[in-house]
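On clarity, I found the account of how folds are encoded harder to follow than it need be. Since the whole study asks how a given chain folds, the encoding of that fold should be made plain. For illustration, here is how one protein appears when written out as sequence plus structure tokens:
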Amino acid sequence: MVKRFVAIWFRHLLTDWVTLRRPPLRQAPFVMAALDRGRMLITAANPAAQAQGIDAGMAAADARAILPALQVLNDRPGLSDKLLKALGEWCIRYTPIAAVDAPDGLILEVTGCAHLWGGEQPYFREIVNRLRGSGYDVRAAMADTIGAAWAIARFGEVTPLIESGEQASALLPLPPTALRLEPAVLERMQRLGLHKLHHFMAMPRSVLRRRFGPGLLHRMDQALGQEDEPITPLRSPEPYHERLPCLEPIVTGPGIEIALQRLLETLCHRLRQEGKGLREAIFRGYRVDGKVEQIGIGTHRPSHHADHLFKLFAIKIPDIEPALGIELFTLEAVRVEPLPPLQETLWGGSGSLDDIGVAELLDRLTGKLGAQAIHRYLPDEHHWPERSIKPAASLAERETTSWRTDRPRPIQLLSKPERIEVTAPIPDYPPMLFRYRGRLHTIKKADGPERIEREWWLEEGPHRDYYIVEDEEGGRYWLFRSGHYTEDKPEWFLHGFFA
């Protein structure tokens, strides 16, 4: 497929931005200036100032001498980059690949996007009209190459929409500056009388290389499509990404649900064909006012079951605020994993973690209660209690070692042992009483001690003597004494709870 690009040129980026925030300046001549080597130099001038012969690069003092009524505003460092980035993020509603073309432009790769708007002409017109309607003076062009689109946007005089394969003829009447050449090369061409591209583009390549260096041939090849020109997108597009533009802005919940269902069906069909399932997905709605609404879901195992995924999203759809309407919906599978086909059973499910019904139930509970409400742990190859378990990344992850069953372990293990006050008789005897969070517990039954040494290759410190105790109310606890009993004041801790 032939690639297509749109180059957008913001002719008065900074001054348009100021005018949007200060409408009274729309008709008044003003410039933006920054300090450079001890003097204020103009960095941008609005059309009214340019009509008086004032433009970027002039000293602010000289400009005021020409036009005493000129207003000079301070230019903030990096402002143009921030504006271009924000505008590029806004343009992602038209294509997933948008890049900044400093200092005053954007590059959009629009391959395969125009048909969603009914063709290239209405698609191109929609982008330009929306930007102009937002208050920015823009010129744009569409072509097969970045170089051709950039040149036509800034120097073209006929049509901004270049048909596929016609970039060479469209470039011929343009000046050499349209190829983005170095100033020294442009000055040499000026001296030789090469004022248009058709004056030299048909010359032998060896002559051009000898006269002007390899940079000229490099730019010519990029503009003609004989050499690729890479761009750095603002947001790396996800490989599993679906888009759904709307003929009319969507403002209702049912409309959002219909859009989500269509995107899920398309995405899940593709995942199913490739034997994959999503683990994380983001549903975005691009509003007419420029804001973006989004909701996300996660699953415990890969899934391409559209109905199940829709139920997970449906819980969060009320969080979407359409305001004046949503004009574009996107669905991105942020995380995708292989999903091999499972053998079906003849008589119901097993109820194990391999059961799809169990996984989908956990997904719905997570969507309602939050990601931190459900945890799964696996045994780890450590005997120190805090390191003996680890969180599982997914339901599909299997244990690398078996659970310890030779000694009882509490169902609930505290992440950090809590200090308690203990009354104990002679050494190695279990405690008789302990106070935990202000409450006194009388011990009726006890078992221990079980000594657990620290793993010396990881850290140093005292060992622990653990006791399983039961109080007068039947509560069972896992207590330990840190270090030897013969020490001055041995410390006792509560580390877990049994059923």
User: Anything to note?
Assistant: Residues 158-224 form one domain. The first strand starts at residue 5 and ends at 10.
